[in-house]
Amino acid sequence: MKNYSRFWLLCLLLAGFVQSAMAQRTITGKVTSVADGSALPGVNVVVKGSTTGTSTDAGGNYSLAVPSGTITLIYSFIGLETQEITVGSGRSVVNVEMAESATELTQVVVTGYNQTQRKDVIGAITSIKSEKFKDIPVTGIDQALQGQASGVQISQSSGTPGGGISVRIRGNTSISASNRPLFIVDGVPVYDGPVSGRSFGGQEDNTLAIINPNDIESLEVLKDASAKAIYGSRGANGVVIITTKRGKNNKTSITADVQRGITDIVQRPRMLNATQLVELQREAVTNAGQDPSQQGLITGVTDGVDTDWVDAILRQGVLQQYQISAAGGNDRTRFYMSGNVRDEEGVQLNNRFTRYSGALNLDHKASNKLNVGANINMSISRNDRVKGDNFLDGVYSGAIKSLPFYAPYNEQGELYGPNSIGYAGFPNFNPVGQALLPRFTTHGLKILAGINADYELVRNLRFRTKFSMDYNNAEEDQYEPSGTAIGGFLAGVGGRGYGVYITSTSYTLINSNVLTYYLSLNDTHHFNALLGNEIIYSQGRASNVQGRLFPSDDFTYINSAGIVDAGGSGFSQNGLLSFFGEIKYDYKDRFLLGLTTRYDGSSRFGQNRRFGLFPSLSAGWRISQEKFMESVGFISELKLRGSYGFTGNERIGNFQFLGTWGSVTYNGATGVGPDNLSNPDLQWERTREANIGIDAAFWDGRFTVTADAYSNLTDNLLFAQPIPLTTGFGSIQGNVGSISNKGIELTLSSVNVDRAVRWTTDLNLTHNINKVVTLANQDTLFRGYSADGVGATNAVLEGQPLGTFWGLKFLGVDPATGDAIYEDINGDGRISPEDGQVIGNAQPILFGGFNNRVTYKGFDLGVFFQFMYGNKTLNFTNATLINAGADIQNNQHVNAWRRWKNPGDVTDIPRYELGNTYNNFHSSRFLEDGSYLRLKNVSLGYTLPARWVGKVKLSSVRVFASGTNLWTLTSYSGTDPEVSTLDGSTTAQGIDFFTLPQVKTMMLGVTVKF
Length: 1010
Known about the structure:
22-stranded antiparallel barrel, Beta-barrel_TonB_sf, globular, 9 helices, mainly beta, signal, 5-stranded mixed sheet, 47% strand, single chain, Immunoglobulin-like, TonB-dependent receptor
């Protein structure tokens, strides 16, 4: 009986199993990219309404057992458009093509040490893909940001290739510490200062110009505390995360890119010719009551020679760039490698920037749990510089000032030496000789390298460790021969050459360790946690030596110098020990919450304040996910978000908190003496940041809006606090004062036409209000070209923004006398430094960019505008070129022809009178509206039909033409409203003092993919 019962039980179980098997079926298929047909691994395939699912393998294939009958399969992957496909009972194969998401709100975004979807971001982050700047011939990665992101103000300080770039995110936060953002390349914080140890007239070169922008995949700009508090004491100025290109799971593709073009400055200064200048000089002498025929400065001068010195030192430059890259891989190993050569011939004679770069990125799946990777980016540069800007012996400044009735060459075709032409005065050297004869060569080397490992400890718990290095080396080889101003008569010993050799090496070592954990409860509560630590150590060494009295100009190195009497060396180091964490939570993909904190300890600060905590809290509400929004069909995404937190700035010199001693000389004896007072309470600057924003997408992503309003307050400013001189010191490094930045950012993107013709538009606008809230005392701090208030160009004072201009207020020219009229604000009946006042500021009211892209079949057209409105520019060049008063030894601008000449003349330029300095006092006469609208780039490309290039076994071929800085709308009378003489200065920005203008570029290129 028992055996009989067991038999029937077995039959029943077997029947149930057979019935269950007959009720299910297997669906197979392949998922590929709609863009290029490549396989898509890792795509989730789920039966709607159930937990049954799988994911595609390395070849994009999947196999899934599903219930019988009609079902719906959901295909999803981060950054791709989710698809739902209904499958009937008779269908067993389902192949799917997936496209990138139609809206940026579902794109993948890198956020600090992690990444997430745009829809889940609750911080102020702007993403820039490489397609936005691929046709713009930018030199460095910071230049690629210009006009591309709201809240980011980029200015190229001059037209010098490889020159400095000013980068500000949400305004200036510091007076004496760095205002530049933190740049992170593939997880490595990089040094972004100058390569050279010597600035030329306020202009620096730029180490970020050594990194090849063509290797960049994307840039993420982190702007609020929610996004950047994870970087703690280094995040106050914003963070720019650069992700370079990596390989993909498909066949190897090879891309060759060739670009070649010409460059020229956007505008040449308009100077007087020889006849006009002679007339003006004689008029100035006559107005001074002297006889021009008896005035030694102009006796015998004629207009028989008329040299255009600006044309003499400028040329049409040539820009060429060549790159080849390869990318590919399989399900286990992926790679990207590239090599690039960029050669930019500057518009000034003897000026050239050349860069050789290479990159290699590797990713390997060692097992189902372990992934390893490595990256190296190396660049070698050579920068042949020329002296420029406000250098008294600068090439461009000298050409503007030089007198047109002299020539650069004598009758034998030889260059005139510094004492051979013009007056004996310093400004009248030969600028052509100054360009051609010296050697100012800087050799730069930058290496970014890292190795990482990612291991899954248990399900959803991963550990990632990375070791990285940023290495920088520079060697400067400089020689000024006897035919130049310095080597000719200012070298100190008979004018027989002057040489300098400088070398510097710095490196940063970084180790970061991060644990990440993901938890989902009932598909309702989602947690994403991150915990990590980071150790950063930096070291730098530098040395220099100078020599004079060379035997001849054929011997140009220091070992040939007759006198080697100056030099020096230095060493520096600093470290940062950090612990950080982040928790992100979302409820039903509707309510989002984030908590981030970092605990930093820096060797740059005193033992009492070495460690600090930088927390932030953020929240978001995806309103579009609410049921009451289902009836509002035209809104596809709507999210409200806010954040509040703290970040810091520790970027000052090393060990300034220490009381140090230095060498001193007294009464002929040398010894040591106190050099700096100690301050064990010295700490980082702290910025309190509050942000509220909204992200919206309409009509399935056809129109998107991102808007942010923020209020930031930076206190504990790192500042040399004045103390009584009775202490034996004038100041002590402390934390005093505060600065605020408040603003509004708006980004609009639209797909205007999406048919055979596709037309997209991107517009970003930023309004930032910067203000110095408090200082150590209420005394005005004078900056710029004077620090005592007498002729000062800039001032720092409470209630005014950084970059405030200071001077006399110019009221016009007296029609009766031709003399300048200034406002006498203290009413004492005379004009003096006490009548100085705020006359404007360099901060714009509004800035941004406007980008349009149109595609039709194989054609693509891009038009990009960049603009700035409401800022003032100090045309300090005009202090020399328009009524220089006591000095008539320089050429003058053509606007000098509008000068006052006779009683009754109405003009804004005072009369010319030799020795009259009153008419040339520093005043608002030299301050102009610096607003501009610039056509930054126009590119036109054509991609040849696939059937054509396929015949020669090519994947694609694109030819294109590109132009930059083609047109500028501005009322500024100088050559370029964008330049800034004191490169990177915070307190003295917006000054144009003989600064080389931007260059315009016309290029042709071809990109071939194999």
